Amino acid sequence: MDYLTALGSLFEAEGRHDPYPAYDVIRAQAPVFRAPDERWYVTTHALTNRFLRDTTMRLADSSDYDQFWPDWRQNRGVASVVLSMLQTNPPDHTRVRRAAAATFTPRRIAAMRDVIAAQAEELIKEMPAEADFMTAFAYPLPVGVICALLGVPEADRPWFRQRAHDLTIVLEPISTADEMQLADAAGRELENYFIGLIAERRKNPQEDLTTALVEAGALTGEELLANLVLLLVAGFETTANLLGTGLHLLLSLPAQADRLRADPSLAPDYVEEILRYDSPVQLTTRFATEPFEVDGIAVPAGAALTMLLGSANRDPARYDDPHRFDPDRPNIQPVSFGGGAHYCLGAPLARMEAQVALPLLLTRLPALALNGDAVRRDRLVLRGYSEVPITTGTVS
Ligand code: HEM
To answer: Where does the record locate the signal sequence feature (predicted)?
Structure first.
Protein backbone atom coordinates (compact mmCIF):
# COMPACT_ATOMS: atom_id res chain seq x y z
CA MET A 1 0.00 0.00 0.00
CA ASP A 2 1.43 3.45 -0.88
CA TYR A 3 1.20 6.21 1.69
CA LEU A 4 -1.54 8.21 -0.03
CA THR A 5 -3.75 5.13 -0.28
CA ALA A 6 -3.02 4.50 3.41
CA LEU A 7 -3.97 8.10 4.25
CA GLY A 8 -7.16 7.85 2.19
CA SER A 9 -8.13 4.66 4.05
CA LEU A 10 -8.35 6.62 7.33
CA PHE A 11 -11.35 8.47 5.91
CA GLU A 12 -13.24 5.27 5.05
CA ALA A 13 -15.18 3.09 7.51
CA GLU A 14 -12.98 0.04 6.95
CA GLY A 15 -9.62 1.81 7.49
CA ARG A 16 -10.94 3.89 10.36
CA HIS A 17 -11.80 0.77 12.35
CA ASP A 18 -8.11 -0.21 12.49
CA PRO A 19 -5.99 2.79 11.47
CA TYR A 20 -2.70 1.40 12.81
CA PRO A 21 -1.47 -0.43 9.67
CA ALA A 22 -2.13 2.77 7.68
CA TYR A 23 -0.27 4.88 10.25
CA ASP A 24 2.78 2.61 9.86
CA VAL A 25 2.81 3.13 6.09
CA ILE A 26 2.46 6.91 6.24
CA ARG A 27 4.92 7.33 9.13
CA ALA A 28 7.52 5.35 7.16
CA GLN A 29 7.02 7.81 4.28
CA ALA A 30 7.81 11.00 6.23
CA PRO A 31 7.58 12.59 9.69
CA VAL A 32 5.62 15.46 8.10
CA PHE A 33 4.29 15.81 4.54
CA ARG A 34 1.76 17.69 2.44
CA ALA A 35 -1.05 15.59 0.97
CA PRO A 36 -2.86 16.43 -2.30
CA ASP A 37 -5.75 17.86 -0.23
CA GLU A 38 -3.23 20.59 0.80
CA ARG A 39 -3.29 19.48 4.44
CA TRP A 40 -0.04 18.59 6.18
CA TYR A 41 0.17 15.43 8.28
CA VAL A 42 2.50 14.87 11.24
CA THR A 43 3.20 11.23 12.01
CA THR A 44 6.00 10.91 14.60
CA HIS A 45 6.04 11.19 18.39
CA ALA A 46 8.92 13.70 18.42
CA LEU A 47 7.34 16.16 15.96
CA THR A 48 3.85 15.86 17.43
CA ASN A 49 5.20 16.69 20.88
CA ARG A 50 7.20 19.57 19.49
CA PHE A 51 4.40 21.13 17.42
CA LEU A 52 1.83 20.84 20.23
CA ARG A 53 4.12 22.97 22.41
CA ASP A 54 5.21 25.38 19.66
CA THR A 55 3.87 28.86 20.46
CA THR A 56 4.06 29.91 16.79
CA MET A 57 1.27 27.39 16.04
CA ARG A 58 -2.37 28.45 16.47
CA LEU A 59 -5.80 26.88 16.36
CA ALA A 60 -8.47 27.93 13.88
CA ASP A 61 -10.52 30.30 16.05
CA SER A 62 -13.66 32.39 15.57
CA SER A 63 -11.79 35.03 13.52
CA ASP A 64 -10.63 32.34 11.06
CA TYR A 65 -14.16 30.90 10.87
CA ASP A 66 -15.53 34.41 10.13
CA GLN A 67 -13.33 34.45 7.02
CA PHE A 68 -13.87 31.01 5.53
CA TRP A 69 -17.42 30.28 6.74
CA PRO A 70 -19.31 33.54 7.51
CA ASP A 71 -22.45 31.66 8.69
CA TRP A 72 -20.71 29.31 11.13
CA ARG A 73 -22.53 30.71 14.18
CA GLN A 74 -25.82 29.47 12.76
CA ASN A 75 -24.74 25.88 13.40
CA ARG A 76 -24.86 25.80 17.20
CA GLY A 77 -22.87 22.54 17.37
CA VAL A 78 -20.00 24.21 15.52
CA ALA A 79 -20.46 27.42 17.52
CA SER A 80 -20.23 25.69 20.89
CA VAL A 81 -16.90 24.10 19.93
CA VAL A 82 -15.41 27.17 18.20
CA LEU A 83 -16.40 29.52 21.05
CA SER A 84 -14.92 27.19 23.71
CA MET A 85 -11.32 27.29 24.91
CA LEU A 86 -10.56 24.27 22.70
CA GLN A 87 -10.50 26.57 19.64
CA THR A 88 -9.35 29.85 21.13
CA ASN A 89 -5.93 31.47 20.94
CA PRO A 90 -4.11 33.80 23.37
CA PRO A 91 -4.90 36.20 24.92
CA ASP A 92 -8.52 34.91 25.13
CA HIS A 93 -7.40 31.32 25.63
CA THR A 94 -5.09 32.29 28.49
CA ARG A 95 -7.89 34.18 30.28
CA VAL A 96 -10.54 31.49 29.82
CA ARG A 97 -8.23 28.59 30.59
CA ARG A 98 -7.01 30.32 33.75
CA ALA A 99 -10.58 30.82 34.98
CA ALA A 100 -11.51 27.21 34.22
CA ALA A 101 -8.33 25.83 35.80
CA ALA A 102 -8.99 27.90 38.94
CA THR A 103 -12.34 26.11 39.36
CA PHE A 104 -11.12 22.70 38.18
CA THR A 105 -8.59 22.48 41.02
CA PRO A 106 -6.50 19.43 41.98
CA ARG A 107 -8.31 19.49 45.36
CA ARG A 108 -11.73 19.37 43.71
CA ILE A 109 -10.58 16.54 41.42
CA ALA A 110 -8.95 14.54 44.24
CA ALA A 111 -12.18 14.84 46.22
CA MET A 112 -13.92 13.00 43.37
CA ARG A 113 -12.09 9.71 44.01
CA ASP A 114 -14.65 8.49 46.55
CA VAL A 115 -17.55 9.64 44.35
CA ILE A 116 -16.06 7.71 41.42
CA ALA A 117 -15.58 4.55 43.51
CA ALA A 118 -19.11 4.76 44.96
CA GLN A 119 -20.73 5.31 41.55
CA ALA A 120 -18.66 2.47 40.04
CA GLU A 121 -19.69 0.07 42.86
CA GLU A 122 -23.32 1.00 42.32
CA LEU A 123 -23.16 0.42 38.54
CA ILE A 124 -21.42 -2.93 39.06
CA LYS A 125 -24.18 -4.06 41.46
CA GLU A 126 -26.88 -3.08 38.98
CA MET A 127 -25.23 -4.74 35.96
CA PRO A 128 -27.32 -7.55 34.43
CA ALA A 129 -25.73 -10.98 33.75
CA GLU A 130 -25.45 -10.08 30.05
CA ALA A 131 -24.86 -6.44 29.24
CA ASP A 132 -23.45 -3.91 26.81
CA PHE A 133 -20.56 -2.48 28.81
CA MET A 134 -20.83 0.93 27.08
CA THR A 135 -24.47 1.37 28.15
CA ALA A 136 -24.22 -0.29 31.55
CA PHE A 137 -20.97 1.30 32.74
CA ALA A 138 -18.61 3.12 30.34
CA TYR A 139 -21.05 6.00 29.71
CA PRO A 140 -22.96 6.27 33.00
CA LEU A 141 -19.80 6.48 35.14
CA PRO A 142 -18.12 9.52 33.50
CA VAL A 143 -21.51 11.15 32.83
CA GLY A 144 -22.31 10.81 36.55
CA VAL A 145 -18.88 12.14 37.56
CA ILE A 146 -18.85 15.23 35.33
CA CYS A 147 -22.50 15.96 36.16
CA ALA A 148 -21.71 15.74 39.88
CA LEU A 149 -18.87 18.24 39.33
CA LEU A 150 -20.96 20.61 37.23
CA GLY A 151 -23.98 20.26 39.50
CA VAL A 152 -26.28 18.75 36.87
CA PRO A 153 -29.28 17.04 38.51
CA GLU A 154 -29.41 13.22 38.38
CA ALA A 155 -32.65 13.05 36.39
CA ASP A 156 -31.16 14.95 33.43
CA ARG A 157 -28.14 12.66 32.95
CA PRO A 158 -29.38 9.86 30.63
CA TRP A 159 -30.20 12.53 28.05
CA PHE A 160 -26.59 13.54 27.36
CA ARG A 161 -25.03 10.54 25.54
CA GLN A 162 -26.93 11.00 22.26
CA ARG A 163 -26.48 14.80 22.35
CA ALA A 164 -22.70 14.44 22.78
CA HIS A 165 -22.56 11.83 20.02
CA ASP A 166 -24.38 14.17 17.63
CA LEU A 167 -22.41 17.27 18.62
CA THR A 168 -18.91 15.76 18.33
CA ILE A 169 -19.31 15.02 14.61
CA VAL A 170 -18.05 18.61 14.16
CA LEU A 171 -14.60 17.39 15.27
CA GLU A 172 -14.41 14.92 12.36
CA PRO A 173 -12.61 15.95 9.16
CA ILE A 174 -15.55 14.71 7.06
CA SER A 175 -19.29 14.83 7.84
CA THR A 176 -22.58 14.78 5.93
CA ALA A 177 -25.15 17.60 5.79
CA ASP A 178 -27.52 15.45 7.87
CA GLU A 179 -24.88 14.92 10.54
CA MET A 180 -24.18 18.66 10.66
CA GLN A 181 -27.90 19.27 11.16
CA LEU A 182 -27.92 16.83 14.08
CA ALA A 183 -24.88 18.63 15.53
CA ASP A 184 -26.76 21.93 15.26
CA ALA A 185 -29.80 20.47 17.04
CA ALA A 186 -27.63 18.93 19.78
CA GLY A 187 -25.76 22.25 20.23
CA ARG A 188 -29.06 24.13 20.61
CA GLU A 189 -30.42 21.63 23.14
CA LEU A 190 -27.23 21.64 25.21
CA GLU A 191 -27.03 25.45 25.11
CA ASN A 192 -30.67 25.74 26.22
CA TYR A 193 -29.96 23.29 29.00
CA PHE A 194 -27.04 25.32 30.31
CA ILE A 195 -28.86 28.66 29.86
CA GLY A 196 -31.37 27.23 32.35
CA LEU A 197 -28.70 25.92 34.71
CA ILE A 198 -26.71 29.19 34.65
CA ALA A 199 -29.86 31.22 35.45
CA GLU A 200 -30.69 28.81 38.27
CA ARG A 201 -27.18 29.03 39.77
CA ARG A 202 -27.17 32.83 39.58
CA LYS A 203 -30.25 32.71 41.81
CA ASN A 204 -29.20 29.78 44.01
CA PRO A 205 -25.40 29.36 44.10
CA GLN A 206 -24.18 25.83 44.93
CA GLU A 207 -20.86 24.16 45.69
CA ASP A 208 -20.32 23.19 42.03
CA LEU A 209 -18.23 24.06 38.99
CA THR A 210 -21.08 25.82 37.19
CA THR A 211 -21.54 28.23 40.11
CA ALA A 212 -17.75 28.70 40.39
CA LEU A 213 -17.44 29.58 36.69
CA VAL A 214 -20.46 31.92 36.81
CA GLU A 215 -19.09 33.67 39.90
CA ALA A 216 -15.54 33.95 38.49
CA GLY A 217 -16.96 36.56 36.10
CA ALA A 218 -13.99 36.24 33.71
CA LEU A 219 -15.98 34.80 30.80
CA THR A 220 -18.45 36.53 28.47
CA GLY A 221 -21.94 35.03 28.30
CA GLU A 222 -21.23 33.09 25.13
CA GLU A 223 -17.85 31.87 26.42
CA LEU A 224 -19.48 30.63 29.62
CA LEU A 225 -22.10 28.71 27.68
CA ALA A 226 -19.64 27.19 25.19
CA ASN A 227 -17.20 26.13 27.88
CA LEU A 228 -19.88 24.51 30.04
CA VAL A 229 -21.02 22.51 27.00
CA LEU A 230 -17.35 21.62 26.30
CA LEU A 231 -16.69 20.54 29.89
CA LEU A 232 -19.76 18.33 29.89
CA VAL A 233 -19.12 16.70 26.51
CA ALA A 234 -15.30 16.44 26.80
CA GLY A 235 -15.84 15.25 30.36
CA PHE A 236 -17.50 12.01 29.40
CA GLU A 237 -17.33 11.24 25.67
CA THR A 238 -13.57 10.51 25.62
CA THR A 239 -13.52 8.93 29.08
CA ALA A 240 -16.30 6.51 28.09
CA ASN A 241 -14.11 5.49 25.15
CA LEU A 242 -11.09 5.04 27.43
CA LEU A 243 -13.12 2.75 29.72
CA GLY A 244 -14.62 0.76 26.84
CA THR A 245 -11.32 0.36 25.00
CA GLY A 246 -9.50 -0.44 28.24
CA LEU A 247 -11.90 -3.12 29.40
CA HIS A 248 -12.07 -4.69 25.93
CA LEU A 249 -8.27 -4.83 25.76
CA LEU A 250 -7.93 -6.38 29.22
CA LEU A 251 -10.59 -9.01 28.58
CA SER A 252 -8.90 -9.84 25.25
CA LEU A 253 -5.60 -10.37 27.11
CA PRO A 254 -6.63 -12.51 30.12
CA ALA A 255 -3.09 -12.71 31.56
CA GLN A 256 -3.02 -8.89 31.73
CA ALA A 257 -6.49 -8.79 33.31
CA ASP A 258 -5.38 -11.37 35.92
CA ARG A 259 -2.26 -9.36 36.74
CA LEU A 260 -4.19 -6.13 37.29
CA ARG A 261 -6.87 -7.99 39.27
CA ALA A 262 -4.17 -9.43 41.55
CA ASP A 263 -2.42 -6.07 41.99
CA PRO A 264 -4.66 -2.98 41.48
CA SER A 265 -1.72 -0.73 42.39
CA LEU A 266 -0.50 -1.34 38.81
CA ALA A 267 -3.52 0.62 37.49
CA PRO A 268 -1.63 3.87 36.64
CA ASP A 269 0.77 2.02 34.29
CA TYR A 270 -2.09 0.03 32.75
CA VAL A 271 -4.10 3.18 32.10
CA GLU A 272 -1.13 4.99 30.49
CA GLU A 273 -0.50 2.00 28.24
CA ILE A 274 -4.19 1.79 27.26
CA LEU A 275 -4.06 5.51 26.41
CA ARG A 276 -0.95 4.92 24.29
CA TYR A 277 -2.10 1.71 22.66
CA ASP A 278 -5.48 3.00 21.48
CA SER A 279 -5.91 6.73 22.07
CA PRO A 280 -9.50 7.97 22.57
CA VAL A 281 -8.53 11.11 20.58
CA GLN A 282 -6.74 10.30 17.33
CA LEU A 283 -5.90 13.69 15.88
CA THR A 284 -5.76 17.43 16.39
CA THR A 285 -4.82 20.30 14.08
CA ARG A 286 -2.66 23.41 14.34
CA PHE A 287 -1.88 26.20 11.85
CA ALA A 288 1.69 27.41 11.32
CA THR A 289 1.90 31.20 11.63
CA GLU A 290 5.51 31.30 10.40
CA PRO A 291 7.35 29.33 7.71
CA PHE A 292 9.86 26.80 9.03
CA GLU A 293 11.99 23.88 7.93
CA VAL A 294 12.06 20.47 9.55
CA ASP A 295 14.04 17.41 8.42
CA GLY A 296 14.79 19.24 5.15
CA ILE A 297 11.08 19.84 4.49
CA ALA A 298 9.91 23.46 4.05
CA VAL A 299 6.57 24.13 5.74
CA PRO A 300 4.96 27.46 4.70
CA ALA A 301 3.11 29.92 6.94
CA GLY A 302 -0.60 29.07 6.98
CA ALA A 303 0.01 25.30 6.66
CA ALA A 304 -2.72 23.25 8.40
CA LEU A 305 -0.89 20.52 10.30
CA THR A 306 -2.94 17.50 11.31
CA MET A 307 -1.19 15.68 14.11
CA LEU A 308 -1.97 11.98 14.10
CA LEU A 309 -1.84 11.29 17.85
CA GLY A 310 -2.58 7.59 17.35
CA SER A 311 0.38 7.32 14.98
CA ALA A 312 2.71 9.20 17.35
CA ASN A 313 1.75 6.77 20.12
CA ARG A 314 2.82 3.79 17.96
CA ASP A 315 6.04 5.37 16.65
CA PRO A 316 8.80 2.69 16.70
CA ALA A 317 11.41 5.45 17.13
CA ARG A 318 9.86 6.17 20.54
CA TYR A 319 8.46 2.76 21.59
CA ASP A 320 10.03 -0.68 21.20
CA ASP A 321 7.65 -3.12 19.57
CA PRO A 322 4.91 -0.41 19.54
CA HIS A 323 2.03 -2.71 18.56
CA ARG A 324 2.46 -4.80 21.71
CA PHE A 325 0.39 -3.92 24.78
CA ASP A 326 2.96 -3.68 27.55
CA PRO A 327 2.20 -1.74 30.76
CA ASP A 328 5.77 -2.38 31.93
CA ARG A 329 7.25 -0.05 29.33
CA PRO A 330 9.39 2.63 30.95
CA ASN A 331 8.32 6.25 30.63
CA ILE A 332 5.13 5.70 28.59
CA GLN A 333 4.03 9.37 28.15
CA PRO A 334 1.53 9.10 25.28
CA VAL A 335 0.35 12.24 23.46
CA SER A 336 -3.30 11.21 23.94
CA PHE A 337 -4.11 14.27 26.09
CA GLY A 338 -2.33 16.64 23.68
CA GLY A 339 0.39 18.95 25.00
CA GLY A 340 1.32 22.60 25.51
CA ALA A 341 -1.23 25.34 26.26
CA HIS A 342 -4.26 23.21 25.28
CA TYR A 343 -3.14 20.12 27.23
CA CYS A 344 -6.32 18.38 28.36
CA LEU A 345 -7.76 20.14 31.39
CA GLY A 346 -9.52 16.95 32.47
CA ALA A 347 -6.53 14.57 32.18
CA PRO A 348 -6.16 13.99 35.96
CA LEU A 349 -9.90 13.29 36.26
CA ALA A 350 -10.02 10.93 33.27
CA ARG A 351 -6.96 9.05 34.54
CA MET A 352 -8.45 8.74 38.00
CA GLU A 353 -11.77 7.40 36.66
CA ALA A 354 -10.00 4.66 34.69
CA GLN A 355 -7.53 3.87 37.47
CA VAL A 356 -10.39 3.39 39.94
CA ALA A 357 -12.91 1.70 37.65
CA LEU A 358 -10.88 -0.91 35.74
CA PRO A 359 -9.39 -2.77 38.74
CA LEU A 360 -12.73 -2.52 40.57
CA LEU A 361 -14.56 -4.16 37.66
CA LEU A 362 -12.00 -6.99 37.55
CA THR A 363 -12.05 -7.66 41.28
CA ARG A 364 -15.81 -7.33 41.85
CA LEU A 365 -16.64 -9.36 38.74
CA PRO A 366 -13.97 -12.09 38.64
CA ALA A 367 -15.78 -13.99 35.85
CA LEU A 368 -16.25 -10.90 33.65
CA ALA A 369 -15.79 -11.89 29.98
CA LEU A 370 -16.43 -10.65 26.45
CA ASN A 371 -19.63 -12.01 24.96
CA GLY A 372 -19.23 -11.73 21.18
CA ASP A 373 -17.81 -9.05 18.92
CA ALA A 374 -17.57 -5.45 20.04
CA VAL A 375 -18.80 -2.79 17.61
CA ARG A 376 -16.48 0.10 16.68
CA ARG A 377 -17.81 3.66 16.62
CA ASP A 378 -17.78 4.97 13.08
CA ARG A 379 -15.48 7.87 13.91
CA LEU A 380 -11.86 8.70 13.16
CA VAL A 381 -11.17 11.42 15.76
CA LEU A 382 -13.02 10.15 18.86
CA ARG A 383 -12.06 6.49 18.80
CA GLY A 384 -13.84 3.83 20.81
CA TYR A 385 -16.64 1.27 20.76
CA SER A 386 -20.37 1.85 20.51
CA GLU A 387 -21.03 -1.61 21.95
CA VAL A 388 -18.96 -4.05 24.05
CA PRO A 389 -21.07 -7.14 24.90
CA ILE A 390 -20.05 -8.78 28.17
CA THR A 391 -21.16 -11.49 30.58
CA THR A 392 -20.64 -10.52 34.19
CA GLY A 393 -20.84 -13.70 36.29
CA THR A 394 -21.65 -13.00 39.94
CA VAL A 395 -20.54 -10.03 42.00
CA SER A 396 -17.94 -10.94 44.62
C1 HEM B 1 -8.47 19.15 25.65
C2 HEM B 1 -8.09 14.34 25.23
C3 HEM B 1 -10.96 13.75 29.11
C4 HEM B 1 -11.72 18.52 29.20
C5 HEM B 1 -8.09 17.90 25.25
C6 HEM B 1 -7.13 17.64 24.20
C7 HEM B 1 -7.03 16.29 24.07
C8 HEM B 1 -7.92 15.70 25.04
C9 HEM B 1 -6.17 15.53 23.06
C10 HEM B 1 -6.32 18.69 23.43
C11 HEM B 1 -6.87 19.00 22.09
C12 HEM B 1 -5.97 19.91 21.31
O13 HEM B 1 -4.87 20.26 21.74
O14 HEM B 1 -6.36 20.29 20.21
C15 HEM B 1 -8.83 13.78 26.24
C16 HEM B 1 -8.90 12.35 26.50
C17 HEM B 1 -9.70 12.19 27.60
C18 HEM B 1 -10.14 13.51 28.02
C19 HEM B 1 -8.17 11.29 25.70
C20 HEM B 1 -10.12 10.93 28.31
C21 HEM B 1 -9.52 9.80 28.24
C22 HEM B 1 -11.37 15.00 29.50
C23 HEM B 1 -12.19 15.26 30.66
C24 HEM B 1 -12.42 16.62 30.65
C25 HEM B 1 -11.73 17.19 29.53
C26 HEM B 1 -12.65 14.23 31.67
C27 HEM B 1 -13.20 17.48 31.60
C28 HEM B 1 -13.75 17.15 32.67
C29 HEM B 1 -10.92 19.08 28.24
C30 HEM B 1 -10.87 20.52 27.99
C31 HEM B 1 -9.94 20.69 26.95
C32 HEM B 1 -9.43 19.37 26.60
C33 HEM B 1 -11.66 21.59 28.71
C34 HEM B 1 -9.54 22.02 26.30
C35 HEM B 1 -8.28 22.55 26.92
C36 HEM B 1 -7.79 23.79 26.24
O37 HEM B 1 -8.12 24.02 25.07
O38 HEM B 1 -7.06 24.56 26.89
N39 HEM B 1 -8.54 16.70 25.76
N40 HEM B 1 -9.60 14.44 27.16
N41 HEM B 1 -11.10 16.17 28.86
N42 HEM B 1 -10.04 18.43 27.40
FE43 HEM B 1 -9.75 16.45 27.36
So the answer is: none
